[in-house]
Each structure stands twice: as C-alpha cells, then as structure tokens.
Design brief:
Blueprint lengths: L2 H26 L3 E3 L5 E3 H7 L11 H8 L2 E8 L2 E14 L2 E6 L1 H4 L4 E5 L5 E10 L4 E7 L8 E2 L10 E6 L9 E16 L8 E8 L11 E4 L3 E9 L9 E5 H5 L2 H5 L7 E2 L2 E5 L3 H6 L12 E6 L15 E5 L2 E2 L3 H8 L7 E8 L2 E8 L1 E2 L4
Parallel strand pairs: 9-14
Antiparallel strand pairs: 1-2, 3-4, 3-6, 4-5, 5-8, 6-7, 7-8, 10-11, 10-13, 11-12, 12-15, 13-14, 14-15, 16-23, 17-18, 18-19, 19-20, 19-21, 21-22
C-alpha cells in the first residue's frame, strides 16, 4: 500500500470513529433505560437524580418533645396494691401546686394515687375532684414535682384528617411513655357507654382517632401536630372486627368543668322525676303491665312518676313514651340523660310523648337530682 493510501485510511478510520461515537451519544440520551426492577427511565432523568434533594416525611419528634414531660403514668392503689393504671397530664402550675387532668375511671375507688414521671421518679398525687358522667378528674401535685406543662389547643379548630398523636402508658408500667400517631378521624361522635356496668345509660360526645389507644392510655392527652392538647383520651371500641377506633373528650368540654373539679364541687344535675326504661326493654315493660304498639321503635317509657317532682306537676303518666326533649330526638335513656343534663335546676323544658298513638307535649320545670 502506498504511503498516501495509508494516510487516507487512518483519516477515514478516525472520522468514522468520531462520527460513530457522536451517533451513539445522541441515541443514548433519547433512549429509555430499564432499571433492575423493570421500570422504564430515561438517561436524562437518571443524571438529574444526582442533583435531587430527597425530603423525608415530616417528623412529630419536636411536638412530642414539647409535651412529653407533662404526661405521667397514674397508678391507682387500693389496700396497698395497684388496682389499675392510666395516664394524666399537667395543664397548669399555680402557686405551690401543679394540676393534672385525667379520667374519672382512672382514679375511681383509689385510696392512694402514685404518679410516675417521664424520668421514672414516683410522686404522690391528691384527687381534688372527679365526676362519673364527665369521666374527668383533677389530680394535684407539688409544683416542684412537675417537669413541664402541656399547652392547651383547640379541638374546634381541628379538621378531619389532621395529624394527631397520643402519649400514655398502655398496658401498664412496661410501656409507659408510649407515643402513637394517626389522624383526627371524626368529630362530634355520639358514643353510648355503660356507667352501671349492665346497660348503656349515657352518651358522650367525643373526638375519634385512629391513633392506637389501649388500656392505660385513658386520661392521657390527644395532641395536634403542634403538640397542643385537643382532647382527653377516654375510651375505645373493643370488638374483634374493629381496629383503631379510639375516642377523646374535647378539651373545651373538659376545661369548661375544670374549676368545679379543682374545688371538689358537686356538679348539680337536674331530674325529670320519673322512673324509665327503653322501649326495647320488653321484660320490664311486661312486669310493669305496659303494652306498646309494635310500631314504636325508639323512645323512653315512663314506668313511674316521682312524687313532688317536676314530672308530677306535668301531664306525664305511666306508659307514656317520651320521644323528644326540646325538639331533640330521644332514642333511649342514654340520650335522654345526655339532653337533660344540658339544662340546670329550675329550667323549664318541653317533653314530647306518645299516649294511645297520639303525640302530645307537656312542660316540666326541672328539680335537683338527689344522688343519695
């Protein structure tokens, strides 16, 4: 081969190599690549990933820290042994004392209350006041025994889907200081509960959350994402087919009764002046000689009218079926008590009732409920 031919061949090969390289580059930047998981992605996208800032999910740690030291475990002692446990939180420090909010059922029947702080120190507490229907109680401790105070927020300003969390002592000492989170699942839930242990005789208006709530969480705070208390954990649904349905007393409702609880004042409730049962209580109705029309599915049946009461001065009599209290529907005795206890002794209310298939109304001036 001649020298000039060799030079031309080298030049030709060099140009072909350069052009081939350029061609492969332009093809590659416009070709989708398949990653190890079989997902299609472009080379441009992959190169851009190296400059992407990955943001982790928001953490509640700062909000938890804000409230954590205000929450304590409650041990309910009876005859020198722990009969139950729960949770409580400090809502204010005033003078020489700090004040804690919890549930009535957490401290009920106790002859001694011991609180365990977040640093595991045990301190003595004194129950100032407690109320079964509110399911609220106030415990007082020395101000020097309080580590921190919880900030009080607003359940009214909270919205469905807002992030919430709890701090408490589920299942006792071993799991004290447990934090669980979820969302605000519902507001103004009307949950029927049993105070007598046999029948559902009271209704509570509560907040619903899917944050895990277990025995021992009772009395602890339900907090918003800012670490502010919006409710007091009170109960949960316990059924095999139900998961994560816990309930809390709205903080506004709790704080509206706080002064009476702090001063150990008896919360005076009115009474109608009747003995009553649900329309579904066929056994008691039969024993009382009362026969109802099969079409009546909801309401409260008057079994007896109490002498010298507001009802005794009204038109109510045995066998009447109460269906409304001031235009609010009364489904059963639990709802009647809930509506009735919105009023005060001396108030006059209107009762709607059925007698012999006819709807009637009567007015009743409420008298004081004798709890003895």
């Amino acid at each position: 081969m001649k020298k000039n031919d060799k030079i031309n061949l080298v030049i030709y090969l060099f140009v072909a190599f350069v052009l081939g390289g350029l061609l492969m580059y332009f093809i590659s930047i416009n070709t989708n690549l398949i990653d190890s998981n079989g997902n299609s992605t472009s080379n441009n996208t992959c190169r851009a990933c190296s400059d992407t800032v990955i943001v982790n999910e928001g953490s509640l740690s700062a909000s938890v820290e804000k409230a954590y030291d205000a929450v304590m475990m409650v041990q309910n002692y009876k005859n020198n042994s722990v009969q139950s446990t729960g949770s409580a939180f400090v809502y204010k420090v005033e003078g020489d004392y700090a004040y804690m909010l919890t549930n009535h059922h957490v401290v009920e029947g106790a002859d001694r209350i011991v609180l365990i702080r977040s640093d595991d120190e045990e301190i003595e507490g004194t129950v100032l006041g407690s109320d079964e229907y509110l399911d609220l109680a106030v415990i007082r401790i020395n101000a020097s025994d309080s580590i921190d105070v919880a900030a009080i927020g607003s359940s009214e300003d909270s919205k469905l889907g807002d992030v919430v969390f709890t701090i408490g002592s589920p299942l006792g000492y071993e799991y004290r200081g447990t934090v669980t989170d979820g969302i605000l699942s519902g507001k103004d839930r009307m949950v029927t509960v049993s105070l007598s242990g046999t029948t559902s005789d009271w209704v509570m208006k509560v907040l619903q959350t899917n944050a895990a709530v277990n025995p021992g969480n009772s009395g602890g705070p339900l907090l918003n994402a800012s670490g502010e208390v919006i409710g007091v954990i009170s109960l949960k649904l316990v059924e095999t087919e139900v998961e994560n349905m816990g309930f809390a007393i709205p903080i506004e409702y709790a704080m509206s009764h706080i002064e009476a609880l702090e001063n150990n004042e008896t919360i005076v409730r009115p009474m109608l002046g009747i003995s009553m049962v649900n329309v579904t209580d066929t056994y008691t109705l039969y024993r009382s000689g009362i026969i109802l029309d099969d079409s009546i599915e909801n309401g409260v049946v008057v079994i007896e009218v109490t002498a010298d009461s507001g009802a005794s001065k009204s038109d109510l009599q045995k066998g009447d079926v109460i269906t409304k209290l001031n235009d609010e529907a009364i489904n059963n005795t639990a709802y009647l008590r809930y509506e009735l206890y919105k009023y005060n002794v001396g108030d006059t209310i209107t009762i709607t009732y059925l007698r012999d298939g006819e709807e009637r109304t009567t007015k009743i001036t409420l008298t004081e409920y004798n709890q003895s």
